[in-house]
Amino acid sequence: MANIEKRTTKDGKSHYRVLVRLKGFPPQSATFERITDAKNWATNTESAIRENRHFKTNEARKHTLADVIDRYIENILPTKPKSADVQEGQLKWWKAQIGAYTLCDVTPAMIGECRDKLLKGKTNKGTKRAPATGVRYLAALSHAFSVAVNEWGWLEDNPVRKVKKPVESRGRVRFLSDDERKRLLDACKENSNKLLYPIVVLAISSGMRYSEMINLTWRDVDLEKQFIILHETKNGERRNVPIAGHALELLKSLKKVRRIDTPLLFPGNATQKPTTLRRHWKLALSKAGIENFRFHDLRHCTASYLAMNGATTVDIAGVLGHKTLSMVKRYSHLSEQHTSKVVTAMNEKIFGTSF
Question: Angle between the 245-256 and 196-206 helix axes, to the nearest 10 degrees?
Fold first, then answer.
């Protein structure tokens, strides 16, 4: 039921305080200068409460997007340490653009305009932002909205769900030809940093990321069972990485001459820090005459070689540590080439080459 109480201030002005109480729901109140407005609010509020429409709408009027972002940064981001710094910057960008708006006023159209503004802007290096950047910014905002919807009850729906994501490219696929691979490995072997060669071989052999390899300790390596345990990965899950062939032999050789003053697999001059490869890597690329190639492309080499040797997208995703197959679809054409050869060989064996 609604109770309307008339109140008069010291200067003689009157206003009306409305209190709506319904069993099983917290009381709602508001103040109006006119009795007509008070009665209309009371009627509409009672109806909204009974239809379960009132609370989230009311909360959406009380909170701004800045409130969502601030609470998210304070309470949610600390649970995501690997992406916290990047996402905090992304969320603060949204806050600067439309943080002053109440949640009920933030629309998909408004978010879409911000998306377009973001993509038209320049990076710190002066280059045009990639569609993938827009996707990441939208993802950060979307999760903040989802938490506000599902956990805080501040609004009814996530407006980012209705905003079209920029179309990302299929992704870079740059891998070494047989000749390029030989030249690069020869240059790495001759490099003054004697750890460069085993690191590059291990990267090609296993598909591990640079950050995953460079921080390895000998406790992470089981040479008898022939695998490496990655405790810290990009997707947050522990992963066992098989090691075989030349990479396995190199690790066995390294263990025989390992330093006892550090647990690191690839230590630098400072025993508590891993070796640094940037300068040595660039020198090896230059000596091998290889252009347009980054260290991370060694991971593409692994995936591409696996695909060309008959591995399925599921196999490749398992080796690289991807949770979904979307990231490895870029290598599907290489698997298809292998599949075509297998089918051709089978038909030739059964039916012969002439018909």
Answer: 140
